[in-house]
Amino acid sequence: MGLTRDVAEWVAGASIDDAGDRVVEAARSAIIDTVAVILAGAGEPVTRIVAETVAEDGASGVADRLGARLRTSMEGAAFINGVSGHALDYDDVNRSVIGHPSVAVFPAALAAAQGVRASGRRLAEAYTAGVEVMTKLGRAMGSAHYRTGWHATSTLGALGAAAAAGKIFRLEPGALQHALAIAASTAAGSRQNFGTMTKPFHPGHAARCGVLAARLAQKGMTGDTAILEAPLGYFAMFSYGEARIDGVGASLGRPYDVVSPGMNVKRYPCCYATHRAADAVLDLVREHELRAPEVESAEVRVPPGGLAAVTRDRPRTGLEGKFSLPYVVAAAMLDGRLTLETFTDDMVRRPEAQALLERVRPVEDPAIPVEFNAIEEGYVVVRVRRRGGTVLERKVDYPRGAPQNPLSRGELHDKFRDCARGVLPREQSERALALLGAIEQLAHLDDLVEALIPA
After folding, report:
1. Closest by Cα among 109, 102, 138, 112 to 125
2. Neighbouring residues of 101: CB distance < 8 A, sequence distance ≥ 6
3. Phi, psi at 366, each rounded to 5°
4. CA neighbor of 205 nearest in space, from 420, 399, 53
């Protein structure tokens, strides 16, 4: 049989009707959050560049860009929406994959669903199945994949997107194996591009490739049907000997990753590796009336490997600021909040922020326990020394928005409204939110998609 066959058979047979109410509710919440960040990123330069490029191709219109009026191919829509959803680094993450599952999988599932006029329930089912494949394979991968420089959002995202699109197209297990094989040959994405426009390109690329792989397989294109486990296959190339694939097939849906460990919803629009430190600083600011001019120095202690994603210690742009632990700490101290406006070029370059971030020292502490995912395991400690010698300290195990410290439904809906306000009128935003809140009951997606596109 083999892992590739196991995965394909599970995807073909997976039913959201059998998954339980908790899975449906978790999928619904994750979709709301993902659509929110797609809308928020609709006006970003990288989204505009990609959308203009796709529009130049003049593809037959079957699927839509969210947040702006452009009808294009399934691949084109998946590409644009994937880029838009990651443009602000505000989308969810997952412990199993060391990356962002929804932003690669949902745009592929949505585009495919529009292409065949699928129901909202089929869309939620395909999204859940794609995320499950991506995360369970991510858990099997091992951490060397990420440490070496691969961006798992893209490399694993292509497989999750192919599974989701294949589910929408109702591919049989044999065709799904071929779709996974085709997608595996598109897997790419370097972490060296963090802090540039190419990082949000990654999930868009994965979503587009997943849809294309499923369409090609549907038409009869073949690939190696043991692509995941073969000697020269996916895990052999990407895991550097760390992969542990035994039992992966049996683990699918037992439980679903959208429920356990669950999806981490971002409270702040920056790299998730900064969020525990951000929470610690914001707590100190509120509780001790900490002000930036009184700060002599700040030390941020993270687990071993916890600085791998935050590569821009001295940022000069808004994009670089999202991947700068010193800047996030400095901005939290200066402003007492972290918002979309925090990560503009002007805010990052302001002299007071540049001066303060020089006094922030990130440290990887070998005493903090971590097994696989340094961004989420262990804890983070922020220690601030005030001028005069007083030391303030705060430890954070789970950031706001983590499954162990979740946002309330009201907070999630407020995030959606905040993300949508620059794109949609208030009444249209509320209509879209209501439709998303009942997505599994929608007979088709026409009204929902129309509500997500400005007039």
Report:
1. 109
2. 92, 93, 94, 130, 131, 134, 135, 153, 157, 160, 257, 263
3. -65, -15
4. 53
Nearest to 135 by CA among 220, 229, 252: 252
How is residue 269 annotated by DSSP? S
pLDDT at 57 over 80: yes
Q: Which is it for the CA torsion 340, 345, 350, 353, positive or negative?
A: positive
- From 58, 70, 195, 96, select the one nearest 453 (Cα to Cα): 70
36, 252, 333 from 359: Cα distances, Å? 35, 46, 12
Bridge partners (DSSP) of residue 363 are 301
Is the peptide bond prior to 362 cis by the omega test (within 30 degrees of 0)? no
Looking at residue 455, its pLDDT comes to 86
Catalogue all structural domains in the chain, each as residue range(s) with its CATH number: 3-264 (1.10.4100.10), 272-396 (3.30.1330.120)
Tell me the helices (H) and strands (E) count for the chain, helix number first.
Answer: 22, 8
Q: Measured between alpha carbons, how far is 131 from 156 in angstroms, rounded to an integer?
A: 10
Where helices occur in 219-266 by DSSP H, the ranges are 234-238, 248-251
Report the Cα 208 to chain-centroid distance in Å.
15
Residue pair 395/379 in contact by the 8 Å Cβ criterion: yes
Tell whether the model's pLDDT for residue 351 goes beyond 80.
Answer: yes
Question: How many residues does the structure list for the chain?
Answer: 455
Pairing of strands 360-364, 295-302: parallel
**Cα-only R_g, the chain:** 21
pLDDT tens string 334-343: 999 999 999 9
